[in-house]
Specification:
The complex is a heterodimer of chains A (115) and B (114). With 115 residues, chain A is mainly beta. Chain A is 0% helix and 49% strand. Chain B contains no helices and twelve strands. In chain B, 35% of the residues are buried. By secondary structure, chain B is an all-beta fold. Chain B starts with a strand and ends with a strand. The chains are: A mainly beta (115), B mainly beta (114).
């Protein structure tokens, strides 16, 4: 089955720790995205990548970092510089470089809680 | 700047009743519009999208939406809801300075009354 997997489903972090959220897709999509979801605020774009070894900041990139070393993988690191990281994180992908005009396919999400 | 407004935070309808979820957008050119659905604790799934052409768009699961340029609206409708339609619904528009990202509304949570 083709799709997007995210792991772990739940993640707990102590203050001051960096954590990495995994996102893998086997859809052969070029574009991948990370969103943050908070109650009542919809989805906000953190980073996106249109091709391997290239990525762009979204609206709320501060305190986050990404890499795109392989087409199928787009991990997100939440650093200690992110002041309020508790949220639901969603990874998505779309087929083409001009990905916004395509359907975005979403993973099941990772819920991160800072203790 | 482009924006999307979903004025209803939470709506409750009875099973079998009709549904309309409101979405208003702000965009200077012809908008590219989407409706996504999110079940609790899950990712988002595309219901339908509008790029051009017929202003009444059919989607999956019996949903449809109508683009009305004069009202800057893209409301989602379903003639008869089922208990499985309980979820959060997001309207979205392509936006950004280079049309390089999708801007999501804040969502409307739909509850179904038995």
């Amino acid at each position: 089955d083709g799709g997007i997997t995210q792991s772990p489903k739940y993640l707990f972090r102590k203050e001051g720790q960096n954590v990495t959220l995994s996102c893998e897709q086997n859809l052969n999509h070029d574009a991948m995205y990370w969103y943050r979801q908070d109650p009542g605020q919809g989805l906000r774009l953190i980073y996106y990548s249109q091709i391997v070894n290239d990525f762009q900041k979204g609206d709320i990139a501060e305190g986050y970092s990404v890499s795109r070393e392989k087409k199928e993988s787009f991990p997100l690191t939440v650093t200690s510089a992110q002041k309020n990281p508790t949220a639901f994180y969603l990874c998505a992908s779309s087929p083409r470089l001009a990905g916004v005009y395509d359907t975005q396919y979403f993973g099941p999400g990772t819920r991160l809680t800072v203790l | 700047a482009q924006s999307v407004t979903q004025p209803d935070i939470h709506i409750t309808v009875s099973e079998g009743a009709s549904l309309e979820l409101r979405c208003n957008y702000s965009y200077g050119a012809t908008p590219y519009l989407f409706w996504y659905v999110q079940s609790p604790g899950q990712g988002l799934q595309l219901l339908l999208k509008y790029f051009s052409g017929d202003t009444l768009v059919q989607g999956i699961k019996g949903f449809e939406a109508e683009f009305k340029r004069s009202q800057s609206s893209f409301n989602l409708r379903k003639p008869s809801v089922h208990w499985s339609d309980a979820a959060e619904y997001f309207c979205a528009v392509v936006g950004g300075s280079s049309a390089s990202k999708i801007i999501f509304g804040s969502g409307t949570r739909l509850s179904i009354r038995p």
